[in-house]
Known about the structure:
Elements (H helix, E strand, L loop, with lengths): L1 E5 L7 E2 L21 E4 L9 E2 L41 E3 L28 E4 L8 E4 L17 E5 L5 E3 L1 H4 L7 E7 L8 E6 L4 E5 L5 E3 L1 H4 L7 E7 L8 E6 L11 E3 L2 E3 L12 E5 L5 E3 L1 H4 L9 E7 L8 E6 L5 E5 L5 E3 L1 H4 L14 E5 L8 E5 L7 E5 L5 E3 L1 H4 L2 H4 L4 E7 L8 E6 L17 E2 L1 E5 L5 E3 L9 E2 L1 E7 L8 E6 L5 E5 L8 E5 L12 E6 L2 E5 L1
Parallel strand pairs: 3-38
Antiparallel strand pairs: 1-2, 1-37, 3-4, 5-36, 6-7, 7-8, 8-9, 10-11, 11-12, 12-13, 14-15, 15-18, 16-17, 18-19, 20-21, 21-22, 22-23, 24-25, 25-26, 26-27, 28-29, 29-31, 30-33, 31-32, 34-35, 35-36, 38-39
Amino acid sequence: MAIKQLSLAGFFWMFLINFLVESAIHHGWGDHNGRNLITFRPNVIGAESKIEQLVETIQYRPFPQIAQLENAVSMTELPIKNRVGTVSPTPLFFDVTLSSGIDFEHTDGNSKLRLFNEFLGSGGGFFDYDNDGDLDIYLVNGVCQIGGREERSSMNVLYRNNGDGTFFNATKTANVGNIGYGVGCTVGDYDNDGNVDLYITNFGSNVCYRNNGNGTFADVSTQAGIANEQWGASCAFADINNDGLLDLYVTNYADYNLKQDRRCEIGGVWVYCGPRSYPPDVDVCYRNNGDGTFTDLSHQSGILDIAAGHGLGVAFGDYDNDGDQDLYVANDRDPNFLFHNRGNGVFEEVALMLGVAYNDMGDEEAGMGTAFGDYNNEGFLDLTVSNFQNETNTVYRNGNGNFFEDATITAGIAEVTYNFLGWGINFFDYDNDGYKDIFVANGHVMDNINQINQHVMFPQENLLFRNLSDGTFSNISDQAGLALEKVSRAVAFGDYDNDGDIDILVTNWNQTPDLLRNDVGNQKNWIQINAVGIKSNRSAIGARVKIMAGNLIQHQE
């Protein structure tokens, strides 16, 4: 089940289930091949909506300024405000972590040895595991790796949403308190039973929790065949062969074990080693067999036809609008990958040919996170990548599915992001005006970086860029209430309080997470859509919504 929300004042859609260490799961076009297609025609919602039979239910909820949606509201009657203007001095986001009952604290294992795998931190995300209409929260944790170095135990944590802005720790009752060295997570109903399942990447065996539908989960990692003993980083579900079943992609970071750990220095200062200290490991692509098991199709899918990279970020999206889920991988200090889906679950790597393997200067960068999104409303998915400090984050504009243009400088994010080390990143419309903004979580990888460069700090400010609707962005981080500096890593987006705007969950290294409540987006109209696949996967991963409101046209996956 996928829940989508749209604003009517210029329109916006958002995923309420959005995971991954660095970015959200991105979903593709729907068409006659077994995917979901939802198109809203101009001027009238409802009367001219086209919904293919592949979608079981579309549920509308009337919100402020919309008395009866089923009575066909005219778009011309709804105010569409000018995007360019002043930003209210009132903070846009409020940190409600403590008041919401979230007391989780991440640990890297506290080895004090600067082990190579400690710097990644861990992921988290929103998902409605109990189907009550409220987004719950899952947070991934590290664990002590050296015996006797740490007294306290640590585990992953599941917080059940109480529906009143607070959360309850349901980890033990739900049986999802994995005690592994956690890195990332993703969700999807891989067995099409109506309950969202959970997958976790670890340094070591990954974990697949099948949702039992009664508030509990079962660990089926071994039976399903997706334990993946490597160093899993990011992961994502998507139907890559259009058979109605969710397949799985896992990025594996490096070929490393604790016995191989070495000491690295910069100018005589002991630091965490960089990615080139250890060889990259190959990623894994699993095909869903439809019987609760998966088959490793990495060789057959074509993802191993190229040299391995230090994979961190991963995002699925149909960048060329041909109805198939394509795949982008952000690699750390290696060229990035763009896998074009040929239509049968077999991929061709086209990053260099389409201009997204390197930056505009032809340099490979330290890719951390990535996300697809149509930020200029041209009907094609654009791409963004977060990178290391002294490298800008990158915005690639999609040229009608035929090429990508590095628009980082013209978009106005180059100068600001150059001074930050980015991780989780995503396009999202925080103020429901129909144009996708950008949020990026920042934090350095060296806990003593200021000994090397006194102008660089380990904790860093997160950034929010406001889309000015003309292809450029404005840094409004100070006005957004994001001045708090932490060592941030992953980011997830969802409307946890069901008030019509996108809230943000940020995970932080060796610190508490931040639940940032959006207090501005719901001032405009919005609509929620609950899409359930019939011939397609039940999670409706692979659906696209097209919105036409006057001259404003939006596509969201």
